[in-house]
Amino acid sequence: MRPHVELIQEDDYVWHAAELVGGEGRASERRLSVDEEDGSSSLRLDFHTDWGRGPGIHHANTEYYVLEGSMTYGGREIGKGGYVYAPKGVPADAITFTEGTRVLHYREYGDAGFDPVDGLNAPRWKDAYEDVIVIDSEAMTWDAVPKAGPMPGLFIKYLHVDPVSGFYTRLVHAQEGWTDHRLAHHPCYEEAYTVQGHMEYNFGTLDLGTYFFRPARVKHGHFTTQEGGATWLLRSDGELVNWYTQNEWVRWGGEAVNYGPEGGRMRWSMASHDLGRGTAGRSERDLKELQEAVLYQREQGETDDDYIQHGHGTDKSVLAIAKALDAARLQGGHGHDDHDHDDQDHDHAALDWGTDPAALEHADERTDRLRHNWGAGRPWREGDPVPAPILSSLPVRSRSTGRWDADGM
Length: 409
Description:
The chain is mainly beta. It folds into 2 domains: 9-139, Jelly Rolls (Sandwich), CATH 2.60.120.10; 142-327 and 375-409, Jelly Rolls (Sandwich). It is built from 2 helices and 27 strands. It has helices spanning 284-299, 316-331; strands at 5-9, 16-17, 27-34, 41-47, 51-53, 56-58, 61-68, 71-73, 76-78, 82-86, 91-92, 95-97, 102-108, 114-116, 133-136, 143-144, 154-161, 168-174, 179-185, 190-201, 204-207, 210-214, 220-236, 243-245, 252-255, 266-269, 397-399. The radius of gyration is 25 Å and the shape is globular. 33% of the residues are buried. Residues 331-350, 375-409 are annotated as: Disordered. InterPro entries: DUF4437, RmlC-like_jellyroll, RmlC_Cupin_sf. This is DUF4437 domain-containing protein. It comes from Actinomadura livida.
């Protein structure tokens, strides 16, 4: 599984010689994210000369999306918005790119391996089950997303949906003013590259050339879409279900050992209230649009709380600590000395924290082959337990041209 990358501008990546086995020409790649376990990669390619490769079989599910320039697959030329999906183990036709072409290139569940074949009649791998897909996405129409979040204005073009795993690749457009005032997490991973426009949220600014890779269950949100809307090429390794959170807070602390006044003052971090100020960065327009999303939800008959920016209003973390202390006092035991009573008298009432943490995990969460990685996606169906979110305030890579709010989770 890949590490959490959020949010980074592609210009902050270095160029490498492109790993395009068996091709002729010269190209460079930026490695947006890489899975070192199975070779899966999300890449930005620039072709410095005309480049081509004959028919062959990819060792990974392979995708190309043209940002600028042109691509020819099997004699069919497609410009900006051209998309090719070549499943692993399936013979693919010859492909070429013209000098100056810029593309997004993805490999999933495999590495860059490529076996040349004489033609498309070459035998498939025995476990292959899909066919090559070639699409001119510029010629497609936008469809409204059935569940667009808290308000209308989100549109989609489906490029590929895996009929077995549910893995899907799509273009998503949020029109100007589309807003989501809640934090969300999903059962699958989610990654996106911004191909147009501008959106603000707690992890930074989504503008042209920004990228994120979010493992399953990582909390994120508070989106506001700016002038002209925003468009992404977005991928997930399963159906993207939204589990929403409001009135969220994060607090952590510890005993200072060799820093702070007198070396032992309690130090708290990651809460705007602790800093004695509200979190800066949201414009008046943002705050207005976030509240408009709340009002729209209420018009639809949905229960929704007002949006309150981090660091303002009641500090919910302090209330939670007070409630926990009250629960401990009310349920925590009898207060008798050990030597005065038999073993039965030593039993203490079990603390009731409202939810059994085990109920928030899939049954196989700690036993399956991915048990070492809580951020790996798991299949989820309506009625299954909803897994708890992962709070990831410090991704492995993060450098945005916009704002960073550590309370973004």
